[in-house]
Amino acid sequence: MVAHVLSLKLRLLANGFKRSVGQLIGVIIGGLYALGMITMLTLAMWFTAGDIPFQSEIFTLIGSAVVLGWAIIPPLLTGVDLTLEPSRFVHFGIPEKTLGPALVLAGFISIPAVLTIAGLLGASLMWRFDAGALMLALLAAVATAVMAILLCQYLVIMATALRAKRRFRELTFVLLFVVLIALGPIVTSALAAAQSMSDWIQPIASVLGYTPLGAFAAIPGAFASAHYGQMAIHLALGLLYLGGLYLLLARATAKATVTPPPEQRAATAKGLGFFKLMPATPTGAVAARALTYWFKDPRYAIGVLIVPMLPLLFWFTGNQTGSYVMMFLLGPLIGILMGFSISADISYDNTAFALHALTGISGRADRAGRVLSCFLIAIVPVLAAAILPGLISGALWRIPGDLGLSLAGLLIALGVASVSSARYTYSVPLPGDNPMKTPPGNGMRIALTQLGIMLAMGLLLIPVLIPYIIGWVKQSQSFGFITLGAGLAVGIGLMLGGIALGGKWYEKRTPELMQSVILNK
Amino acid sequence: MNQIALDIRGLAKQFGAKIAVNNVSLQVPAGSFYGLVGPNGAGKTTMLSMATGLLRPDSGQALVNGVDIWADPQAAKATLGVLADGVRQFDRLTGRQLVTYSGLLRGMERAEVAQRTEDLLRVMDLLDDGDKLVVDYSAGMTKKISLATAMIHSPKLLVLDEPFEAVDPVSAANIRDILNNYVEFGGTVIVSSHVMDLVQRMCTHVAVISDGMLKAQGTVDEVRGGMSLEDRFVDLVGGRANNEGLSWLRTS
Q1: CA dihedral of B44, B47, B49, B51, whole degrees rounded to 10
Q2: Whether the Cβ atoms of residue A339 and residue A378 lie closer than 8 Å to each other
Q3: Contact B40, B48 (CB under 8 A)
Q4: Cα–Cα distance, B194 to B172 (Å, whole number)
Q5: What is the torsional sign of CA A162, A164, A165, A171?
Q6: Distance CA B10, CA A182 (A)
Q7: CA-CA distance, A355 to B244, in Å (whole number)?
Q8: Among the partner residues A289, A296, A511, nearest to B101 by beta-carbon distance
Q9: Count of helices and strands (H, E) across chain A
Q10: Which end of chain A has the lower number of beta carbons within 10 A, N or C?
């Protein structure tokens, strides 16, 4: 049974790659990059072994960081490859005692898991001059990876259960904010208090050694310094945590396999909603539909998750470096990010796109409607991000320039997205699916596409950037107004151009778009 | 008025090595109630997708009320209503919003859309559920609301892929009444179905398609030639398994 589930998982992974070449390329590039990093780390450990100060502390910190990363990033941000979601096994009467462990083991068959194990094994080489410690370090590396993956699986199942509840999305935001807000002061005060590395690395590492994060990773250090009693404590704690976690996870998995997917509460909406507010034209109708989705479909919110976090991130950076200059880039960045968020719009429609294809709506109206809805959502945050930093810092002269660059960023991004989304569709979570679900390799592909887009945006923004930078350097308000004028002219021009060109491509490619959303790739 | 509502001329489509639709030509006379029957995987949905502009054919033409849908898609689609099989709807909208959306996308006036939306919800027996999200609808309700989105612009030709699947008998009877009424007043309907009985009773014309090829077309009486449509269909398509069945599928 266990072998069957494992081979199913392997088969699904392989078939996933067969479906889409782009995805495979993404996986390969991402994998090569990660392998390169791991090789570098391993080589570094090999050559510096023995010379590293605080060797045992550093090993504990590496282990803890890995576990913490697995605990935070997949459940909250990127999502995981949930092809073997426990609830899929509801219909098979497989005994819970077999299925639980099988699914837990299947969690290890993923590229990130393999890379994590490899990386931790590489890091253990720092102990190569002490055979006993090296053996222990290698074992500790595997145990730490197991801990990381189990913790991640457990938290994902918990998050999936929470997803059934309405407030999950808000909860995610709140959690992230709490983490971020707590992180800033902690790091700042820790760094400020530490006169040298030894002042903070030892207490932190010794505390971590008693938590699930670093219990295993602390073992080789304790052995090397001949603190055998302490080593036994770390080992006992580690095994205790691991055993407890395994029990919790096996029980949660088993429970999820017999709990049918949660019944969605029947939601209602009175009347026509946005359809009443928007003009009764095809463009207005598309905009009203897209606006409804911005509010009702969590996939849209997840896409711009980073936007409310950016000001906080920049503020903390400023808090630590003492220079808040990054805050002035918020407007353009948020503009570009939000404007480009509609680039996966047709992929999100999935086969519901058939309605657009069947009604024969003009490409221009389709493009313009989606742009209009995104513009209405984005304009307030973009204006706020463009005006507030100048206002708060008292540099009123720079507001026109900031406004010009931010609006140009938003408008140009909308234009670029209108063109690119008529040509490229992506593999995205299906409507109603877990919005956190990501097909393997997708993250890398999206990152590459966005890099390309950012480059294109940079080029298109040049006519606005020139007066903006001159204005910034000279602190000149008149150059700010030139930026505003140029930004509006170039932005509106490129947005309309993007809608026209995207509309043309859309009409030419409607059936092809339809077929690619059927395949979701 | 054009005498042929849907004129399919040599449509063909190949997916890799599999020929899904092999050079099919058929004429659907205006004012007919046309049944399209065939076993699973015969190419019905592929052919209808090509005839309605969802899938580009390898070769061939499809003329909707005289307009080639691949040469002038917007004009052809204006007189065409389609219920596609196996596609989602924008299901985060309420039923009322979805039907309204379909009308507005076609450039209709707001007042007219509002009036027809209420009429359609009423005949589909969905008035009480009009404010519910479509994602919460049952399979049959989703079929009915999709049918409403296909009819709001009063098309001359309705192409319905499996319209009765998952629809309860009462709703099915209501839908049949609506369609009969529509044909009486000059509309043309094409339905694909597996239910031969239904096709025999409901349709004036029928085409049998199997393995991507047209096996027969004409009026129902011509095609069945004295037999029941079901027997004739099995004759044409073949492949009735010899009755050994599953010997292990016994409860005792």
Answers
A1: -130
A2: yes
A3: no
A4: 15
A5: positive
A6: 68
A7: 45
A8: A289
A9: 21, 0
A10: N
B90·A352 Cβ contact <8 A: yes
d(CA A268, CA A164): 17
Helix B95-105 vs helix B110-123: crossing angle, to nearest 10: 130
For chain A, first and last CA: distance in Å?
32
Closest CA to A50 of A108, A127, A122: A127
Structural domain contains residue B164: no
Separation CA B41–CA B56 (nearest Å)? 19
Question: In chain B, what residues touch A349 (CB-CB under 8 Å)?
Answer: 90
CA distance A262 to B188: 43
Per-residue HEC secondary structure of A225-294 comes to CCCHHHHHHHHHHHHHHHHHHHHHHHHHHHHHHHCCCCCCCCCECCCCCHHHHCCCCHHHHHHHHHHHHH
Q: Do A359 and B52 touch (CB under 8 A)?
A: no
ipTM of the complex: 0.91
Interchain pair B96, A271: CB under 8 A: yes
Residues present in chain A in total: 521
Q: List residues bridging with B219 in a β-sheet.
A: B205
Residue B137 in any domain: the answer is yes
Residue B107 lies in a domain: yes
Q: Characterize the bridge pairing of strands B188-193 and B33-37.
A: parallel
State how many domains chain B has: 1
* CA atoms of B194 and B36, how far apart (whole Å): 9
Residue B14 lies in a domain: no
Query: Scanning every residue of chain B, which has its alpha carbon at the shortest distance from the alpha carbon of A432?
Result: B135
d(Cα B10, Cα A429) in Å, to the nearest integer? Answer: 38
By residue range, what is the domain housing residue B134?
Answer: 88-154
Please give the pLDDT value at position B238.
79
Task: Confirm if B82 and B52 have CB atoms less than 8 A apart.
Answer: yes
Nearest beta carbon to residue B105 from set A351, A359, A510: A359
Instruction: Count Cβ–Cβ pairs < 8 Å, chain A vs chain B.
Output: 121
Q: Say whether A354 and B93 touch across the interface (CB within 8 A).
A: no
Residue B55 token pair? 């899938």
Chain B residues with CB under 8 Å of A270 CB are 131
Beta-carbon contacts of A81 under 8 Å, excluding residues fewer than 6 positions away, are A13, A110, A437, A438, A439, A440
Give B65's contacts (C-beta < 8 A, 6+ positions apart).
Answer: B2, B5, B6, B30, B76, B79, B80, B156, B157
Most B CBs within 10 Å, among A268, A274, A359, A517, to test the B interface: A359
pLDDT tens by residue, B94-117: 999 999 999 999 999 999 999 999
pLDDT in tens, chain B (252 residues): 568 999 999 999 998 888 999 999 999 999 999 999 988 888 899 999 999 999 999 999 999 999 999 999 999 999 999 999 889 999 889 999 999 999 999 999 999 999 999 999 998 889 999 998 898 888 889 999 999 999 999 999 999 998 888 788 888 888 888 899 899 988 999 999 888 888 888 999 999 999 899 999 999 999 988 888 888 888 888 766 666 677 777 666
